[in-house]
Amino acid sequence: MWQIPYENFPKSESLEDVSKRAPVYFQKEIRTALERGENVLVVSHGAPIRSILMKLKSLTEEEAAKIEIANAEFIVVDY
Questions:
Q1: Residue 78: its pLDDT value, please?
Q2: What torsion, rounded to 10 degrees, do the Cα atoms 47, 49, 52, 58 define?
């Protein structure tokens, strides 16, 4: 698995950091589109996807961190 070099940690976002902003975007943009009956495709890195799934599925941060998302993986969520 790819690892972030230690010297980059202060410049990186944690799942906690992403969890503060990704769900806000989900509520404001994605959920609004879904409520209008639109289909939505989200292309992103693993952490924002995990944070959105964490909110949608009421997961703890520890549970969300264990979700493995492969490169170019499709995750379908019926909302």
A1: 85
A2: -80
DSSP 71: T
Q: Give the closest residue to 14 by CA, choosing from 51, 44, 39.
A: 51
Full-model pTM: 0.70
Cα distances from 34 to residues 30, 41, 51, 58, 64, in angstroms, run 6, 11, 18, 19, 23
> Is residue 1 pLDDT above 60, yes or no?
no
Mean pLDDT across the chain: 84
| C-alpha pair distances (Å), 26 with each of 9, 29, 39, 49, 62 | 26, 6, 14, 10, 21
Please give the structure tokens belonging to residue 55.
Answer: 């909110």
What pLDDT score was predicted for residue 46?
A: 87
Q: How far apart are CA 55 and CA 61, in angstroms?
A: 10
